[in-house]
Each structure stands twice: as structure tokens, then as C-alpha cells.
Specification:
Layout: E1 2-5, E2 12-15, E3 18-21, E4 24-27, H1 32-39, E5 47-53, E6 59-65, E7 73-79, E8 81-88, E9 99-105, E10 111-114, E11 118-124, E12 129-135, E13 144-146, H2 167-170
Length: 188
């Protein structure tokens, strides 16, 4: 497995080793032993989630859970292709409200590591996308939050004017009006 640090501290790309022959392929997509031994990461995941999105240009997010139920996520796209976006929501961080985007697909097999204190969103770039992710805290509806996908203070360059979005995401507040409770003092 290879690890690439991204420009926002704590966000990483994990690229599993991949073995292919005439029968198909094999890849170890997650190993607690490898993450801890090779990269010093010892997060314990408690839940796997799997989403399927029918149509290209569907946007999900910007989603997160508040403290004390904030989640670290390990996200991958196992069918299709997505633009995966991470937003730093840690007040006091030098990268507060900054975002980065990574293309994840069934072909590149990359995974993105998203620490606590970050919002997560993705835009489907093909029809029939499947996204799978691990989290280190269970889903807790009372801590579940979202921020407007088109917040002008974050200014994500989605390259789309009218995405397909949920009612929840249509009604999401701007960052300035949200109750985000992350800070650089809390997050590691």
C-alpha cells in the first residue's frame, strides 16, 4: 500500500497494491496491521457504508457529524467515477474552509483518508456509481450535519450548475450559519 499526503494536513490518499492476471485481480483494500505498522495509523473502524447513485451529476454533501461523534472516513469508489471533495471545518486551522478534490474510480482504486473535523462531499462523474466507506464512529442522527454544497465562502469548483441533490442538501445552511464545533485544539 502506498500513502500520499495531500496539501491539507491530515488528508491522505491510500493506494492499495493491486495484482492482476488472466483470472481477474486481487487487492487488499484495508489492513489495520499495514496502516499501523507502515504509516502509524491505528484508527479502529466500527461501520462500513455503501451508497449507490444512479445518475451522473448527482452531488452528495457536504456532510459530517459534530463532536463528540465526529467521524474519520476511508472512502473509495468501487463502481464508476466520482469527484471526491474534502473541506476543512476546523476553526483556527490555517486551512479552515479550504477544500481539495480527488478523482476516485473503480479504475484508479485510490482511497481518501478523511480525518475528524472535515466535511465530505462527492459528485458522480458517471452513471451507476458505488461508493464505499469505513467510519470510526457509528452514524448518530442527532449529530449529523451538512453545509451548502455551493457555499460562496468555501467556493468549491464543481464545474456544474444544477446537480441532482437531496432535499437535505438543498436545505443545508451556509458554513457561517452552521453549528460546526471542530477546532484545531480538538483534532489531531
Amino acid at each position: 500500500m502506498k500513502l500520499e499526503e495531500l496539501e491539507i494536513q491530515g488528508v491522505k490518499i491510500l493506494e492499495p497494491d493491486y495484482y492482476e492476471d488472466y483470472r481477474g485481480y486481487y487487492s487488499e483494500t484495508y489492513s489495520a496491521r499495514t496502516l499501523k505498522g507502515k504509516f502509524g495509523i491505528d484508527t479502529v473502524f466500527v461501520q462500513d457504508s455503501h451508497s449507490f447513485t444512479l445518475k451522473k451529476n448527482t452531488l452528495r454533501g457536504i456532510h459530517f457529524q459534530l463532536n463528540p461523534k465526529a467521524q474519520t472516513k476511508l472512502v473509495r469508489c468501487t463502481r464508476g467515477k466520482i469527484l471526491d471533495v474534502v473541506v476543512d471545518l476546523r476553526k483556527g486551522s490555517s486551512s479552515f474552509a479550504k477544500w481539495l478534490a480527488v478523482e476516485l474510480s473503480e479504475h484508479n482504486k485510490k482511497q481518501i483518508w478523511i480525518p475528524k473535523g472535515f466535511g465530505h462531499a462527492f459528485l458522480t462523474l458517471t452513471d451507476n456509481c458505488e461508493v464505499q466507506y469505513k467510519v470510526d464512529e457509528f452514524y448518530e442522527p442527532e449529530y449529523d450535519r451538512s453545509i451548502a454544497w455551493n457555499d460562496p465562502d468555501i467556493n468549491i469548483l464543481w464545474d456544474i450548475k444544477d446537480p441532482i441533490i437531496s432535499q437535505k442538501d438543498m436545505n443545508a445552511p451556509l458554513l457561517i450559519n452552521s453549528d460546526v464545533n471542530f477546532s484545531v485544539l480538538f483534532d489531531k
